[in-house]
Each structure stands twice: as C-alpha cells, then as structure tokens.
C-alpha cells in the first residue's frame, strides 16, 4: 500500500512548493497529480490498481464533499452548498 502515502506526500510537497514559489502553477493538486502520474508511469502500475489502493482517501473526500456542499432547490432537489443531502437524493427539507 505504497500509493496512499505517496499521494499524500506528493500533495504536502505541492503545498510546500506553493508556499515557497507563490505561483499559480505550483498548485498542490497539480503537483501531486504530476508526481503520482510520473510514479505510475515509471513503475508501470495500472491505474485501476492505484485507484483501488487509494480508495480510502477517495471515500473520505467524497463523504466530506457530499455532506458540506449540498443545498436544496425549489424543486426539492439538492445542489452544492446547503449541507443537506446531495442532488441525487431528495432533500429532507424543501424550501
């Protein structure tokens, strides 16, 4: 399970680079993506294997996003921003 720590370390490295360089090109997500992509290519690791290894991180981020970024519309559906259930579910409280 080397891919999860590598992904997190690449993001932290991107954050440190952004603090040092102060350039929009030093975006931590971009830096982490490039580092992980290079590592996957050099190790000849298939993306499905990588994805399975970082699934806990994906689940954590998806759960946090869905809880914090949903709001309801007048139709009863939910959209990002409300803190309610997301658009694929019906909202518990309609406007």
The rough form would be described as: globular
Specify the biggest β-sheet: 2 strands, antiparallel
Low-confidence stretches: 87-95
Range of helix content: 55-70%
Using only C-alpha atoms, the radius of gyration works out to: 18 Å
- Average predicted confidence as pLDDT: 78
Helix and strand composition category: mainly alpha
Strands, total number: 2
How do the strands line up in the largest sheet? 1-2
- What is the ordering of alpha helices and beta strands? HHHHEE
User: What is the overall number of helices?
Assistant: 4
Distance between the termini: 46 Å
Describe the structure.
The chain is mainly alpha-helical and 95 residues long. The protein is built from 4 helices and 2 strands, in the order ααααββ. It has helices at residues 3-21, 28-43, 47-53, 55-68; strands at residues 71-72, 78-79. Strands 1-2 form a two-stranded antiparallel ribbon. Helix 1 (3-21) crosses helix 2 (28-43). The longest helix is centred in the N-terminal third of the chain and has 19 residues, at 3-21. The chain is globular, with a radius of gyration of 18 Å. It starts with a helix and ends in a 16-residue tail after the last strand.
């Amino acid at each position: 399970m080397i891919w999860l720590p590598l992904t997190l370390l690449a993001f932290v490295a991107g954050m440190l680079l952004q603090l040092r360089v102060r350039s929009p090109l030093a975006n931590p997500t971009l830096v982490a993506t490039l580092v992980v992509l290079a590592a996957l290519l050099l190790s000849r690791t298939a993306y499905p294997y990588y994805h399975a290894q970082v699934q806990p991180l994906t689940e954590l981020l998806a759960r946090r996003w869905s809880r914090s970024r949903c709001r309801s519309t007048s139709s009863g559906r939910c959209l990002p921003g409300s803190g309610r259930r997301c658009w694929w579910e019906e909202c518990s409280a309609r406007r």
